[in-house]
Design a protein that fits this description.
By secondary structure, the chain is an alpha+beta fold. It has 3 domains: about 130 residues, Porin, CATH 2.40.160; about 230 residues, Serine Threonine Protein Phosphatase 5, Tetratricopeptide repeat (Alpha Horseshoe), CATH 1.25.40; about 240 residues, Immunoglobulins (Immunoglobulin-like), CATH 2.60.40. About 35% of the residues lie in helices and about 25% in strands. Strands 1, 2, 3, 4, 5, 6, 7, 8 and 9 form a 9-stranded antiparallel sheet that branches. The protein has a 4-stranded mixed sheet with strand order 11-10-13-14, with helices on both faces. Helix 4 packs antiparallel against helix 6 and helix 7 runs antiparallel to helix 8. The chain is globular and about 80 Å long. The protein starts with 6 loop residues before the first helix and ends with a strand.
């Protein structure tokens, strides 16, 4: 997502709007998207009469004149204009954005539906401008300052008064959503909630029937996620699902399912708090069922951990609290939720330490136990391993993940890709991880990993490339792992099931370590002629690196350490692709040490840890067409023999530290103060999870997935 530049825009004049309200669609229009209290000028369009003049139905032709920096590249795929109705379908960074609206009082009022399920108010305003290049692309939505004041008051009447004073402001929808999220806190009755919900839906319908339907679903979603009466929340949700268009429901399915789980989890927690043993058993059963579906839902795990402790089941409590303490950023998510609820509780890591001491007399052995729990639970979501020894088409899929130890939104991609490794044997799929210094220094990075990132013109981390094709929407945090896993399985399944037009390329790989040398032999056998742009690339990857990264990932699999022959690969010789070479292991390790040392000197700090064991190793060979970047075939083999390295200096002298360096451990959870915002997972955020407009220092453009850490400019 492009971020508007700063200073020059502040001096630009406001957009000029046609002084006379239009009665027809003819003319130029500015598409305005509203999110988080900001109006974003997204595109300039022209609606003109079709050749020969508008027919009796009043049809027009639409042209996208230009788009602004607030969105990635925009293409107009479809335009349907009839009478006073407008339907525009856009492609935005390979994602869909669909606008529907109608002309009323000189403005085309409508909404946009994104492929991720988010539906937002949008409008087209008339303009005489021929270009938006010299115009400020964003400004405050009407009534923002008054909305901020109403929200700060936390008074129901103040927020309702805002809604009455600004009926045409898109911020009214945010105000009503906030009222619903306050229902439990303010002790509102079901009748009062019903009244607010009706007003919310009516306000949304001013922007089109589709947004009204989305609002109906949002009522149930907000009530469920704000811990209102779970039975009431589920009733609202069920009734809304019966009334909405299937397309809307399908787009919002992820949010709906999350809301159902939130409501059922709240019901389970309420039952656990009962003094009735039968109700407690029912509540525990509900939460255990949900936990099997959502193993990384921290609130569910915490409720079960507390209950186990209260029941005197200390070993079970220790295991559950250990998950919350050790899984990446799980404790931070709990803290965020408690902060939003205004609660202060003992941290899971603190409870775990206390219980462990009670059981063992000290904390000795706790770290080893945490490592064990991490390994047992981190891939618990993955489907069982595939039984097929090799894909029917003989093709082995290559997944290349570009990630970073300091990258919080890389957590979902790292773990989801690890799930793929559990589901598919390496006769079907091979994974390589290339670490980058994004957003901060990473001791697992190296020059070959950086060169490979540059090969794909990587915009940021995480970036996943499957057989040479980037896959969108892989960023996120621990709660998003299962969604990312399901998303990235689809292209893998498609590739494995696709019939082959030619006999598969065969790659024979052998790597033997002996007396400090690695002898490598690779030969490619292909029935089809390989073009001059085809390259053979060889990667040495470390099977597993034990390193507690700042983002909470403890174990890192298939880490790229060296590319034999360089990142450019080996070109065909006389129509053949083969290599027979020797790698000096001491030189390879020393190059990694020198790289980290030089990086430290350039930044003025020292890595607290340099994980450079470099064993065991696998060698991965893949054939890639550099014209299309398509990976044609992949093979993997273990490095056999004796991997022995001479002693090399792996630690630089201490140097002045800079902010943001890796610490070798995750950041300590801090009890939040003030307004908290939902992690930017690209999903719909409503009610209490919606970002408070007062917290926005500077708009960064409408929300579009995927989440990633942008490449840091040196």
């Amino acid at each position: 997502m492009a971020t508007p530049s700063s200073s020059p825009e502040e001096e630009r004049p406001p957009l000029k709007v046609a002084p006379v309200a239009r009665a027809t669609l003819e003319g130029k229009w500015i598409l305005i998207l509203t999110q988080n209290g900001t109006d974003f000028k997204a595109a300039l369009l022209d609606f003109a009469k079709t050749p020969g003049g508008a027919d009796s139905a009043g049809r027009w032709q639409a042209t996208l004149l230009e788009s602004t920096s607030v969105l990635p590249p925009v293409k107009l795929k479809l335009a349907e204009l009839e009478g006073k109705s407008v339907h525009l379908s856009f492609s935005v960074a390979d994602r869909d954005m669909d606008f529907r609206g109608a002309l009323r009082d000189g403005t085309i009022w409508g909404n946009v539906l994104f492929s991720v399920g988010r539906c937002d108010p949008a409008r087209l305003i008339a303009t005489e401008e021929a270009s938006l290049k010299n115009e400020k692309p964003y400004e405050e939505a009407p009534g923002l300052s008054d909305l901020k004041a109403a929200l700060r008051s936390k008074q129901v009447e103040a927020i309702r008064d805002f809604c009455q004073r600004y009926p045409d402001s898109p911020l009214v929808l945010q105000a009503y959503a906030q009222l619903l999220s306050m229902a439990k806190e303010k002790g509102l009755s079901v009748d009062q909630v019903q009244e607010i919900a009706g007003a919310y839906v009516a306000a949304a319908e001013r922007w089109g029937a589709r947004l009204g339907q989305a609002a109906r679903l949002n009522v149930g979603i907000i009530l469920a996620t704000s811990l209102f009466d779970p039975d009431v929340a589920l009733r609202f949700l069920t009734e809304a699902e019966k009334q909405v268009d299937p397309t809307i429901r399908e787009r919002m399915l992820t949010s709906i399912e999350a809301a159902r789980i939130a409501a059922r989890a709240q019901k389970g927690r309420l039952l656990l708090a009962s003094s009735d043993k039968t109700k407690q058993a029912e509540g525990e059963s509900i939460l255990r069922t949900l936990r099997r579906k959502r193993p990384f839902d921290t609130a569910i795990t915490y409720a079960l951990a507390q209950y186990a402790e209260r029941q005197g089941r200390k070993q079970e409590a220790i295991a559950l609290f250990a998950e919350l303490a050790v899984l990446p950023m799980a404790e931070q998510f709990l803290l965020r939720e408690w902060s939003m609820q205004g609660r202060q509780k003992e941290l899971p890591s603190e409870t775990l330490a206390r219980l462990w001491k009670e059981e063992h007399g000290s904390t000795e052995g706790l770290q080893e136990y945490l490592d064990k729990v991490y390994k047992e639970r981190i891939y618990s979501f993955a489907e069982p391993p595939s039984q097929a020894a090799a894909p029917p088409n003989g093709h082995v899929v290559l997944c290349e993940l570009f990630t970073g130890a300091q990258c919080p939104p890389c957590v979902a991609a790292d773990i989801a890709v690890g799930g793929l490794e559990k589901t598919y044997p390496n006769t079907q799929l091979v994974v390589l991880r290339y670490h980058q210094h994004i957003p901060g220094p990473d001791p697992l990075a190296n020059p070959d990993a950086e060169a490979r990132f540059a090969y794909y013109n990587g915009p940021g981390t995480p970036m996943l490339v499957i057989d040479g094709t980037p896959v969108q929407g892989v960023g996120g945090f621990l709660p998003h792992v299962q969604d990312v896993y399901r998303r990235i399985r689809k292209p893998v399944e498609t590739i494995l099931a696709k019939p082959s037009e030619h006999p598969p390329i065969r790659i024979a790989v052998k790597a033997v370590a002996e007396k400090g040398k690695l002898h490598v032999s690779v030969k490619v056998d292909s029935a089809q002629k390989l073009g001059e742009a085809v390259r053979l690339r060889l990667v040495l990857a470390e099977d597993e690196v034990s390193f507690l990264a700042p983002n909470g990932v403890r174990f890192h699999e298939m880490i790229v350490r060296h590319m034999i022959g360089g990142a450019d690969g080996v070109a065909p010789q006389n129509g053949r692709l083969a290599i027979d070479t020797t790698v000096d292991l001491a030189e390879m390790k020393q190059r990694l040490v020198d790289y980290l040392t030089n990086f430290e000197r350039g930044r003025g700090f020292a890595f607290p840890a340099r994980p450079l064991d470099l064993r065991p190793l696998h060698i991965v060979a893949f054939v890639q067409d550099d014209l299309t970047r398509k990976v044609l075939q992949t093979a993997i083999a273990p490095v056999t023999g004796s991997l022995k390295y001479p002693e090399v200096k792996t630690k630089a002298e201490p140097a002045a530290q800079e902010s943001g360096q890796p610490t070798g451990k995750p950041a300590e959870p801090r009890r939040p103060s003030g307004e908290q915002t939902t992690p930017p997972d690209g999903t719909s955020q409503t009610g209490r999870n919606k970002q408070h407009p007062a917290t926005k220092q500077r708009p960064s453009g409408p929300v579009l997935p995927p989440v990633n850490a942008p490449k840091k400019k040196e």
